[in-house]
Amino acid sequence: MYDSELIIRSAALSALKELVNCILIWTGRITAAGVIAFRHSPVGEDGWLELSRTVIIPSLNDGLGHSTDLVKKGFLLLLSHLSRVFG
Fold first, then answer.
1. 62, 63, 65, 75: which is deepest, by most CB within 10 A?
2. Any alpha helices (H) in 1-87, and if so which ranges?
């Protein structure tokens, strides 16, 4: 059985998780090796955190209101990933 929508949803979820991981690296919150860094990032790098607050989180809100359970599952997995990496 081939489900092209499932493949697209899975790829989109993976891409969003990778974006969250990159935001942590770009802001200096975590190193590429996965070691948590507590240094304060320069002001310009906080724009990436602002991106997560203004784009990713509102999209999660909208997506969780979607009626399809399969779609909700993807958004819940992304929310779970966000809560794990941002603490």
1. 75
2. 4-26, 46-51, 57-64, 69-86
